[in-house]
Design goal:
heterodimer; A: 110 residues; mainly beta; globular; B: 113 residues; seven-stranded mixed β-sheet; four-stranded antiparallel β-sheet
């Protein structure tokens, strides 16, 4: 079993829909990252969480440390949100390294 | 502020050839990493460095070497390229504190034939 599991693997939505991507992990962590990878391949950091909730524009990330679970929400989705969303955790005591999920491929149709 | 710069963007190698993937960052980050990304898989750590002169193996180091002579540069060397090394390679850096974000380069797509 992977230490970081994401669901769903693929997601197709209509423009305007509310989207949720889930991430579960099995190790003790010091932080959780949500990353975005566009079709061009570049990876951008969206959020870094160690507790609670963060919001940036239409994106919201939450984490429940007790349940070892995080969600990424996109409100009023748009075709430009189409990308692969990657969850990664920094395990406690690690040298800054991350354990990555396999990603969720999101496609938003106009 | 350029961030993390990787070169080249694309490369095709023949089996047995060698090459160096370059990575440089201008943010004075101590921690630098090399990852590979294979289709349908999460990023896997090849090597990492916590500062100039210090490197260590990650999850998939076989067939690769690194050096860290300066804070800015962290090149990845492939000595005898094999088809199994066909992948997309990402360099990343972070300040190293627990809640520091990770900054990625744009990736190098390598094909070994």
């Amino acid at each position: 079993k992977n230490e970081v599991e994401q669901s769903p693997q693929n997601l197709t939505a209509q423009e305007g829909e509310f989207i949720t991507i889930n991430c579960s992990y099995s190790v003790g962590i010091s932080a959780l990252h949500w990353l975005q990878q566009h079709p061009g391949g570049g990876i951008v950091s969206l959020f870094m969480l160690s507790s609670g909730k963060k919001k940036h524009g239409r994106l919201i990330a939450t984490i429940n440390i007790q349940e070892k679970h995080s969600s990424l929400h996109i409100t009023a989705s748009h075709p430009r949100d189409s990308a692969v969303y990657i969850c990664a955790v920094r395990s406690r005591g690690s040298q800054g390294n991350l354990i990555f999920g396999k990603g969720t491929k999101l496609s938003v149709k106009p | 502020n350029a961030g993390v710069t990787q070169t080249p963007k694309f490369r095709i190698l023949k089996i047995g050839q060698s090459m160096t993937l370059q990575c440089t960052q201008d943010m004075n980050h101590n921690y630098m990493y090399w990852y590979r990304q294979d289709p349908g898989m999460g990023l896997k750590l090849i090597y990492y460095s916590v500062g100039a002169g210090i490197t260590d193996k990650g999850e998939v180091p076989n067939g690769y070497n690194v050096s860290r002579s300066t804070t800015e540069d962290f090149p990845l060397r492939l000595e005898l390229a094999a088809p199994s090394q066909t992948s997309v390679y990402f360099c990343a850096s972070t300040r190293g504190q627990t809640n520091s974000p990770l900054h990625f380069g744009n990736g190098t797509r390598l094909t070994v034939t």
